[in-house]
Every structure is written in C-alpha cells, then in structure tokens.
Design brief:
single chain; 349 residues; alpha+beta; five-stranded antiparallel β-sheet; 12 helices; 12 strands; 49% helix; binds adenosine-5'-diphosphate
Length: 349
C-alpha cells in the first residue's frame, strides 16, 4: 500500500514538474506544500526556501495572499492578473482554487495555477502602438490633402499659380502616402516570411545600388569612397533583400549628410564573415536615440525626416532583413561628426 501511494505521489510530481504552467499547492493555513519548477521560475525562487512556509512570507505579494484568502472565504475559484517584480516585472495570470471537503463546507487547502503572460502583453502593446502609429502617420498627409482639396473646391481660386501650388502639395502628400504604404507592406512581408539564402556576390549587389543612388549623391555634391577587399568569397543572402538594406542605409547616409560631405563604403572579410559598412560625416545621431532608431516610425527629428521624404520605417526594414540573415545591424555615431552602420553576412565558401 505504501509503495503504491509513494509511486502515485512520484507520478503526480513528475506531471507537475513537466507542466508549462506554474502550480503551487497550499494547506488551509496558506503554507506551501508543493511548488513546481514553472512556478519557481515565475517567482525566481528556490523550492527549499518556500516549502512549508507561508505564501506571503516568501513571495512578498500581498495580492496573491489576498486573492487566496478571498477564494478560501468565498469557497470559489478566482482568476486574476497580477504584477510581480523579482527582479524583473512580470505579468501573471493566476487562478486560485480552494480545495473543499466532501460536504463542500470546509476548506482543506488550495491550489494556485500561474501562467506568465508578460511576453503576450508586451506583444499586444507593440501591436497597439503600431496601429496607433500607422493611423497617425496616415492621418497627417490625409488631413493636409483634405484641407487643400476643400479650399480648392469651396473657394474660386482664380489665380492659376496658387491653384497649381495647392495641387502640387496634394500630389506630394499622395506620393508620401504611397511610399508609406509600400514600406509598410514591405515590412509585413519580411516579418511574415522566411526566405532561402543563396550564395551570391556582395559586390554585384552593391554596384547596382550605387548606380541607383549616385544621382542623389551627386545632387548634393557628396563623394563616395568605396573600398572592396580583393578575393571576396560569395556570401549567403536573399539578393533583393540585401539590395533593399543597402539602398536604405546608403540613402540615409546621403539624406542625413549635408552637401559636400563624404560617404565611405567598405566590404571586407573577417574569418568566415563578410562585413559591410557605410560611414558618413553627416549630422550623426545623439547617443540616447541610437538604440531606438531601428524601431518602426522612430525618427530623431520628425520634421526633418518628413521633409526629406522619410517614413521612419527604413531602418526597421533593415534590422528585420539583417536578422533573417542571422546577423545584426549595428551603429556607431557621434552627434555632429557622422554615423557608421555595419553588419555581416556569412561566407558561402
Ligand atoms: P527615415 O525614413 O526617417 O529616414 P529610417 O528608419 O531610415 O527612417 O531612419 C530612422 C531615423 O534614424 C532617421 O529619421 C534619422 O533620424 C536617423 N538616421 C538614420 N540614418 C542616419 C544617418 N546616416 N545619419 C544620421 N541620422 C540617421
């Protein structure tokens, strides 16, 4: 009989240990009789420190204690979302279940089931922020277009010059909208697909991009210095995507560097990696913003970026693509001195 009971106990413990959800069992005095590893992870606590002790004295969470007591008093299951900090802030979904005797009159103990929903909530916040940002970004050009269109429709503008100026503004805002929508589609496509990497020639992609952007640089009298190491191996990439990365990075370097500036582009080999870097001597990025520029819609100077036709999405596209290539985009920059963006691709040889 004893062997049977102890086997049964082992089995239950094994099941509890393998659960993704945290489980804490307590007796009727709220003293812990069992805590599985998922629950220990959630509370960042060791089993020895908590077993046999009162819940409140080990978790230091008045809320958990309060809801457990309430479940005991009401003899009902209660579910709540709880914030817990030790040391990181976590959001936990907790269900408090009182265990009643056969007549359902007396509470013999309780079970708390815990799910860590911190990541889920974080994702929800990111998504909500994104929707709010997109709405805002779409509304700005739309409001301006509606304003000018109303003026054109309501008042008899005789002067063709004024009329043309208004139409030109409307056209510019329409262009901005279509670039924004293109960027957004591009971003969601990259985020939702995984791609096959092929062995390609880095140099070939760079040459194409330089051809595309040379005119922009010339218009601002900006010099390109391009250094490509000899005997570069082929690298693993999705051609069109890396082309997009180079366009975004080099176009930014041109945009945020004043006329007469200089842009240095390097491709070099280091071990089994091939590094790409683009360095400008433009306005640079303040230290506090350097982490954030890769976020969607983040711009150091919103007005300036808008003026230059920016959407604030370019670098988040870059970050996503580079990540899909198993690498990371990085930045070194000093305000007023210039910026350097770099990443590597893996050698295919
Ligand atoms: P945008 O469309 O505004 O250029 P990006 O996502 O490409 O959006 O870049 C985000 C922000 O990062 C820019 O608005 C700008 O403030 C900053 N930035 C990017 N590249 C550079 C650079 N080479 N020099 C200075 N600032 C830069």
């Amino acid at each position: 009989k004893i062997t049977e009971i102890s086997q049964e106990k082992n089995r239950i413990e094994a099941i509890l240990e393998s659960m993704v959800d945290g489980v804490i069992a307590v007796n009727k005095e709220s003293k812990v009789s069992l805590i599985n590893s998922a629950a220990r992870r959630i509370f960042n606590i060791e089993a020895e420190r908590i077993k046999g002790k009162e819940l409140i004295s080990t978790l230091f969470s008045h809320r958990i204690d309060m809801y457990l007591e309430r479940a005991f008093d009401k003899k009902e299951t209660i579910s709540r979302e709880i914030k817990y900090k030790n040391p990181e802030q976590k959001i936990i979904h907790a269900t408090f279940i009182p265990l009643l005797d056969e007549e359902e009159e007396k509470v013999n103990g309780g079970v708390i089931v815990l799910t860590d929903i911190t990541e889920l909530r974080k994702l929800e916040t990111v998504r909500n922020d994104f929707v709010a940002n997109v709405s805002h970004e779409l509304r700005t050009p739309l409001t301006s277009m509606v304003g000018y269109l109303d003026t054109l429709l309501e008042s008899d503008i005789e002067d063709p010059e004024t009329r043309d100026r208004f139409l030109k503004i409307i056209k510019e805002e329409t262009d901005r909208l279509s670039i924004l929508i293109k960027d957004l589609l591009n971003l969601s496509q990259i985020e939702s697909h995984s791609f096959d990497l092929k062995a390609e020639n880095f140099n070939g992609v760079l040459n194409k991009v330089i051809k595309l952007l040379r005119k922009n640089a010339e218009n601002k009298n900006i010099d390109f210095e391009i250094n490509i190491a000899e005997n570069l191996p082929l690298v693993y990439m999705v051609r069109e995507q890396i082309k997009q990365v180079l366009i975004n990075l080099i176009d930014n370097a041109i945009k945020y560097t004043p006329a007469g500036g200089k842009i240095k582009i390097n491709i070099e080999k280091e071990g089994d990696k091939v590094y790409f870097s683009v360095k400008d001597n433009g306005m640079g990025i303040p230290q506090v913003d350097q982490e954030r520029i890769f976020e969607r819609f983040y711009r150091v100077d919103k007005a300036r970026s808008r003026e230059l036709g920016g959407t604030g999405i370019g670098l988040s596209i870059v970050r996503n693509i580079v990540k899909q290539h198993g690498s990371e985009i990085q930045v070194k920059s000093r305000e007023g001195a210039g910026s350097e963006f770099y990443f590597y691709l893996k050698s295919a040889e």
